Amino acid sequence: MEAILRAFLGKKYDIMKVLAQNASENGICLLTIAQVCELAKASKPTVIACFKELESKGVLKRLSNGCYEIAKNFRIFYT
Predict the structure, then answer these.
(1) Can you tell me the distance from the alpha carbon of 74 to that of 55, in angstroms, rounded to the nearest whole number?
(2) 3-class state of residue 35 by DSSP
(3) pTM
(4) 32-62: per-residue pLDDT in tens?
(5) What three-state secondary structure class fits 4?
(6) Which strand ranges, in their side-by-side order, compose the sheet holding 67-70?
(7) Residue 26: φ, ψ to 5°
(8) Residue 23: helix, strand or coil by DSSP?
(9) Under 8 Å between Cβ of 28 and 71
(10) Contact yes or no for 20/54 (Cβ under 8 A)
(11) Positive or negative, the Cα torsion across 46, 55, 77, 38?
(12) Rg from Cα positions in the chain
């Protein structure tokens, strides 16, 4: 399943996986964009574009710099 998702989503999959794996049980992820870039092995523009897309779709909510909340319905795929 992971290979299929990665084939369709590319780096977006890696970024979403990093966010989910580093989130607390209540969905709070304390990572800066630079940290996500490093962990997902993705460029800064790619991470920013992915964050914007996730925010526009209601999957990710920026609470402050380096602090994001992941929607509950998204977290179930990576726990």
Answers:
(1) 12
(2) helix
(3) 0.84
(4) 999 999 999 999 999 999 999 999 999 999 9
(5) helix
(6) 28-29, 67-70, 60-64
(7) -100, 15
(8) strand
(9) no
(10) no
(11) positive
(12) 11
